[in-house]
Amino acid sequence: MTRIHHITSSVLLIAAALSCAGLWQVALYGNVFVMWAIGLVLMMTVATGYRFAASTTFRLTEHSFLLILMSATLLPRLWWISNAGTLPIADFAGYQDYALQVASGNLMGYTDVMTVFPFKFFYPMILGALYWLTTPSAYIAQLLNVVCSVIIAYQVYRLGSMAGGMHAGRLAAIFFALWPSQIAFCSVVAQEHLFQVFFLGGVILLLRAQESSSNRSVTWLGFFAGALIALAHVLRPVAMVIVPTIATVLLWGIRAQQHLRRYITTVGASLALGFVIVAGLFMGLASTAVDQPLWKSNAGFSLYVGTSSESRGFWSVKHAAIIDEYAFDTEAIHKESTRRAVASIVEHPGDFIQLVATKFVLFWGSDDYGVYYSTVEQIPSASAVTIFRYRNRINLVAQGVYFFILAAAGIGLYRRRAKSNNVLLIIASVFLLHVAAFSLLEIQSRYHVLVVPLLMIPAAMTFTRHRSDVPA
């Protein structure tokens, strides 16, 4: 089972890397190859340089490495948010506007569109509370993103160490610190950063429950893993990805438990309990505060957009018209959206198959969201003008980095196909479920932001010797 996961993931990741290489040779003007190659060569230099350093007698203590990692994560992101002058647009402007309303005490200051997509409430609520405690400025949201990035870098380090030992963990974390798209995306008022902290935190606790021999610790670790996953879920629904992943790990994952059935029952029950309590409490309180049923999440509209050959799976004004057509009636909108999506697939199956292939290339072949969303609207300044002038070149460097991550991850998973571990099983599962889900749902390149930090782990394992499968 795990071998099938790894081989399938490897093939698809190489296909995604080739999509990235082909897509961006025709998408932007300028000296494409040189800028793209700079990103690729940068990461190759880092990876091979680290491999050489790891083969010498030089040793860096964990505290020294963590200090270097924190600095490498903080400095470029702080520079970017201080100089890019990013102004919130589109959905991000909606988050900022409602956060300002929450900070002023007006929880009812939401728009009708938010009621159609209930998950849009939770991030601006958290942001509004932070604004109330500090100051109502988008800069606070950007600083929160930077803090989250430092936490994510550490989480990637821990997960990488669990998967392939200390060197794999360190190199994967360095990859994350140098990831251009995520650096740029830190200046965008978006929930993905906070979401990723909770999601990866839940995964780490789940893995620690796998390793524990005490029923009590298994129960508590499972409960808190469920709680963190619940927080991730309210920010952006993840049930379709995490539930099958947890089931896969529980049924086929590697573990040292003597009483297997009792173990699976204990972890499954504690995870479910933590998830239900925290998600129910959070959604219940928020629903009462805004007088809206925020627990009702539905993917109907996303399915409607994602199955459109006309828009190639991207949001369009034509599809958004259904919201006005049904007068913001959430249930009616998603029900009719689902009906139209199913009808489109049934009536034109050939077009749908072609659409799935097209969406794969566009979704996995692009990592442009960070630079794009951080430079669409900017506060006028000399540094912002310079960034805007060179944004296409920056984007191409980012694409070279992204190509490296995809290709190296594909190679890493293939090399480890015969000797998997739970971390790699989770990575392969999350990736494959994203491929499956976004074959049907609306696509934006930023929707794969959850997967890429996980892919940095097998990418790092491509360049490190597999001396140990236990944490450093």
Main sheet overview: none
Low-confidence stretches: 467-472
Number of helices: 22
The secondary-structure class comes to mainly alpha
Termini gap: 28 Å
Average of the residue pLDDT scores: 87
From the alpha carbons, calculate the radius of gyration and give it in angstroms: 22 Å
Quote the beta fraction. under 5%
User: Helix-strand pattern, N to C?
Assistant: HHHHHHHHHHHHHHHHHHHHHH
Helix content: over 70%
Care to count the β-strands? 0
Label the overall shape.
globular
Question: Nutshell version of this structure?
Answer:
The protein is built from 22 helices and no strands. The chain is an all-alpha fold and 472 residues long.
Task: Supply the key terms.
472 residues, mainly alpha
Give a written overview of the molecule:
The structure is a single chain. It is built from 22 helices and no strands. The chain is mainly α. Helix 2 runs antiparallel to helix 8, helix 8 (166-177) packs across helix 22 and helix 10 packs antiparallel against helix 11 (215-235). The chain is globular, with a radius of gyration of 22 Å. The two termini are 28 Å apart. The model is unreliable at 467-472 (pLDDT under 50).
